[in-house]
Each structure stands twice: as C-alpha cells, then as structure tokens.
Amino acid sequence: MATWAEKDFSPPGEPCLDSFAAPGDDQTYTMYHGTSREAAVIIGMRGFRQSSDGMLGRGVYLSRDLQKASRYPLDLPASQRAVIKVNVNVGKVTKIDRQGHPMQKTWHYYGYDMAWCPPQCGMVPSGLEEDCLWDPDRITVLEVMDASEDQPQFGRRAEPPPGCCIC
To answer: Which Gene3D superfamilies match (predicted)?
Structure first.
C-alpha cells in the first residue's frame, strides 16, 4: 500500500503536506534516507550508523518527504542514488527551526531522540523537512528504491550494483 509521500510528486522544493505536521513523541513514521546504491547495500547488511556531524550534529539523517531524500547524495547522478524506505520510532522529538538554535547540535544531551527541522524554516536550502535521529536501532529498513529522475519509478526495488555478490 502506498504512503502519502509516495503519492506526492509535487514540483521540486514544495514540501509534502504532512511534512508540516510536527512528529509526535514515541510515534512510528515512514521515513526515507537518500544514499548511493553501494551504501544502500552496506546499510542493508550492517544497519544505519550515525553521521559524525552535520547541520544537526551527530545522527542518522532522514526525511518524511520522499522528494527530499531522493536528492541525496547531491553530488551523484540519479542513476547512482537509492532511497531507503524505513519505519522509525522517533522517541522524544524537539523542533530546531533556525540556524543558531541553542540546541542545534546538542539536542541529544537534553534528552531528545530526534531533532526535526520543519519545512520552509530557513535551515535547509531546499525548504523541505529534515530529521536527525540519534539511535540507529530505532530504524527498521522496509525496502530500497531507485532514486530515478523519472518520478513514477519510485517504489520499484533497486537492482543491486554491478558485481555485488552479497545480495
């Protein structure tokens, strides 16, 4: 069954409607993580790991907006990207809605499990929402999808990279 984000193929830069809703504490949401096809295979085998740093500090970067995740990594062509669809138990969530927020990179030390940047708050150049989750064990991988520029292909399982002997 398709989720709201899979049906939302708005023009680039227009957030999905549901991404404006603040995630509730201790809820489970379908989210997306954009990565290279090769990294998607490794994540499938070993699970997610925290990024060492980023706009919101350490953590796993995700979005409820499929459009946002499909753009990453920014330096790769769409043919080399994949989107990992996941379920995430978000735990305790805080909103970080401006550069220089007092907890921008320290939110976890205040007892939060996830930091949420709402869409169009000025934090993310694309204007789309972004989340940073501290504990990768809160993530359940559902599937890996192609990040093709041909939007209707979303939801199609990505083929393993050439030469992959793990899949």
So the answer is: Diphtheria Toxin, domain 1 (3.90.175.10)
CATH assignment, 20-153: 3.90.228.10
Supply the pTM of this predicted model: 0.79
Three-state secondary-structure class, residue 59: strand
- Kind and range of the H or E run holding 143: strand 139-146
Phi, psi of 133 (to 5 degrees): -105, 130
Q: Report the C-alpha gap between 39 and 117 in whole angstroms.
A: 25
CA distance 48 to 33: 10
Distances (CA, A) of 100 to 86, 112, 147: 29, 18, 32
Question: Which residues make Cβ contacts (< 8 Å) with residue 80, sequence separation at least 6?
Answer: 36, 37
DSSP 130-141: EEEES-GGGEEE
pLDDT tens for residues 85-137?
999 999 999 999 999 999 999 999 999 999 999 999 988 888 899 999 999 99
Quick one: CA dihedral 55, 8, 84, 148, positive or negative?
A: negative
